[in-house]
Design a protein that fits this description.
The structure holds 2 protein chains of 2 kinds. By secondary structure, chain A is α/β, with parallel strands linked by helices. Chain A has a single domain (about 35-180), classed as Glutaredoxin, CATH 3.40.30.10. Chain A has helices spanning about 1-25, 75-90, 105-115, 130, 160-170, and strands at about 45, 50-55, 60-70, 95-100, 120-125, 140-145, 150-155, 180. Chain A starts with a helix and ends in a 7-residue tail after the last strand. Chain B is mostly helical. Chain B has 5 domains: about 1-75, Cytochrome C biogenesis protein (Helicase, Ruva Protein, domain 3); about 85-115; about 125-190; about 230-260, no CATH class; about 270-400, Tetratricopeptide repeat domain (Serine Threonine Protein Phosphatase 5, Tetratricopeptide repeat). Chain B has helices at about 1-5, 15-25, 45-55, 60-75, 85-115, 125-135, 145-165, 170-190, 195-200, 220-245, 260-270, 270-285, 290-300, 305-320, 320-335, 340-355, 355-370, 375-395, 395-400. Classes of the chains: A alpha/beta, B mainly alpha. The interface of A and B includes residues 2, 73 and 183 of A.
């Protein structure tokens, strides 16, 4: 009888504890993206210089798509690395496009001036593009291959080495299994 | 009339708002902690609500809108996951738990009630009639043992209540039978010890005789319980500090409960070399916040510590604050004019952020005069060469740089 009771307690308690322990090891805020390997959602956006660009215009190029905001410290941290990578890759078949979100336009322009960003940047007014890409913690960066398929997503600040490596992968159409996480990120 | 109103595809204000809330309350706000899109006041949630309204206006059904969000954020976005695959577990386990709990409770209740009802001992008829006599006689209870006296008293009160109309016939009958049976049983018990007890003090409670039977000792029970407790504690102790991240000042308990390394460091070893080393490690791991914390504390201990200033400068430079970074490097150099880290960082800020190439070159030349590793020297030399080229190629900034 007592053995039975003990066995019962263990049979119920141990799985319960295991589930709790498993739950504690997970980050509840991490949102695994279902978009990797899928065609990138189409959009068209107004650039800071007034031009309008749509994703389909960039078909045939490897696309580096970066969501950012001026208030976000990791976006500041990666800004120089992004510009340096653009300088390095601009002559190739690579298109860089920044999407500013959750921001004021003057602040965004000030940010671009401060870091001397030369690649095109669009203003995502209602965050519709961001929602369409399942963005949650900026900076988030998507790498698209020539056919417009998402090969990699990175959450958090990027370094020049990762950018280079992932652009190379996208150029060859190599698709990452899951998104990468950077050093740190901002959520608002 | 009412049918017509409800049947019409109402797209007007309030109804739309209600339908939006219905969808939004089932979606998890991606930038919040456990808030639905309907409840969150964040900008992201606000725009998601606007998007839902737009899609409803465009004639999309709520489940189509939900499917849209799932296609972007995965199942994560749903506050109640669809009952499929792993998601099935969250639906089944509570149901199973509730059924098991209710079943267990019912089983226990039945067991208890059966135990209470069952053992009415066979009644001694003569004892029963004696009790009835005693209740009816209304005389003193001194002649009876305490337990009997109490039961007789209860029977009398019962009778009084019944006569006063406070009890129904059925209740009275049931209670009377119960008390009479108990009293008769008490009366029928062996009578020998009673006089002694009465002599001893007459107020010995009736329970004294019942509880004394010694239980057989079962040490393995205690061992099993202790093992389980230790296992539970160890598991909790292992996983909790691993999973709970430092909250710092935002949490009412600070880092105290989470036992993070910073707190431990603060308590045990606030000495400078340890702080600097920890800061360096944090920097290498890219944990800037932690690194900043260590260096700040190093500066609390020694406000002019050059390594701490230089490292903070590098972080500030990285975060895009060239002016503050430069200040940090200057403070480091004020104490230690030969600090390689500060010289390197100062040159970097001047070169990369402020465009003062000539000044950067001078700084790096000072750095090369110091003792540094071969690897570092090569790196400095290569960037120096690049800077010199730039100086030649762009006379503009060079002309501006000397102050």
């Amino acid at each position: 009888m007592a053995w039975k009771r003990l066995a019962f307690i263990f049979a119920v308690g141990v799985p319960l504890l295991a589930v709790l322990a498993f739950g504690f090891t997970r980050d509840p805020r991490e949102i695994p993206s279902p978009l990797i390997g899928r065609p990138a959602p189409a959009f068209s956006v107004r650039l800071t210089d007034g031009r309008e660009v749509s994703l389909s215009d960039l078909r045939g190029k490897v696309v580096f798509l970066n969501f950012w905001a001026s208030w976000c410290p990791p976006c500041r941290a990666e800004a120089r690395a992004l510009e340096a990578s653009w300088q390095r890759h601009r002559d190739g078949d690579v298109a860089f496009l920044g999407i500013n979100m959750q921001d004021r336009e003057e602040a965004a322009r000030e940010f671009l001036r401060e870091f001397g960003v030369t690649y095109p940047n669009g203003i995502d007014g209602g965050n519709r593009i961001a929602i369409d890409y399942g963005v949650w913690g900026i900076p988030e960066t998507f790498f698209l291959d020539r056919t417009g398929r998402i090969t990699y997503k990175h959450i958090g600040a990027l370094g020049a080495e990762t950018i280079h490596a992932k652009l190379e992968e996208a150029r060859q159409g190599v698709q990452s299994r899951r998104e990468g996480k950077g050093e740190y990120q901002s959520i608002r | 009339m009412a049918v017509l109103v409800f049947a019409a595809p109402a797209v007007a204000g309030e109804d739309l708002e209600d339908r939006m809330r219905e969808v939004a309350s089932g979606l998890r706000c991606p930038v919040c902690q456990n808030l639905s899109v309907a409840d969150s006041s964040s900008e992201m949630a606000r725009e998601m609500r606007a998007l839902i309204v737009d899609q409803l206006r465009a004639g999309k059904r709520p489940d189509e809108i939900r499917a849209y969000f799932v296609s972007k954020y995965g199942q994560w976005i749903l506050l109640s996951p669809t009952p499929r695959g792993v998601g099935l577990v969250v639906w089944i386990v509570p149901t199973v738990g509730a059924v098991a709990g209710l079943g267990g409770a019912a089983w226990l209740l039945r067991r208890w009630s059966r135990r209470e009802k069952s053992p009415l001992p066979p009644v001694d008829v003569s004892a029963l009639s004696r009790i009835r006599e005693a209740v009816r006689a209304d005389d003193s209870l001194v002649a009876l043992a305490p337990e009997e006296a109490r039961l007789v008293e209860a029977l009398r009160e019962l009778r009084f209540d019944y006569r006063a109309g406070k009890l129904s016939d059925g209740d009275y009958e049931e209670l009377r039978t119960l008390y009479e049976t108990r009293a008769a049983a008490a009366l029928a018990r062996p009578k020998r010890p009673r006089p002694e007890r009465a002599a001893a003090g007459a107020s010995v409670p009736e329970a004294a005789a019942a509880g004394a039977a010694p239980r057989p000792a079962r040490p393995w029970r205690w061992v099993a319980a202790a093992l389980f407790l230790i296992g539970f504690g160890a598991t909790l102790g292992y996983f909790l500090p691993q999973s709970v991240r430092a909250r710092g000042e935002g949490s009412p308990t600070g880092d105290f409960l989470t036992g993070t390394r910073e707190e431990a460091a603060r308590a045990e070893a606030p000495d400078l070399p340890v702080l600097l080393e920890r800061g360096r490690q944090a920097m290498e791991a890219g944990e800037w916040d932690r690194a900043i914390g260590f260096f700040r504390r190093a500066l609390e201990a020694d406000p002019d510590e050059p390594t701490a200033h230089a490292s903070l400068g590098l972080i500030l430079h990285r975060a895009g604050h060239p002016d503050r970074a430069l200040k940090s490097f200057e403070r480091a150099l004020a104490r230690d004019p030969a600090s390689p880290q500060a010289l390197w960082g100062k040159g970097l800020v001047l070169y990369e952020s402020l465009g003062k190439t000539a000044e950067a070159i001078r700084t790096w030349e000072t750095l090369l005069a110091q003792e540094i590793s071969k690897e570092d020297r090569d790196h400095v030399l290569s960037i120096l060469a690049e800077a010199r080229q730039r100086l030649v190629a762009q006379p503009g900034p060079a002309a501006r740089s000397p102050r």
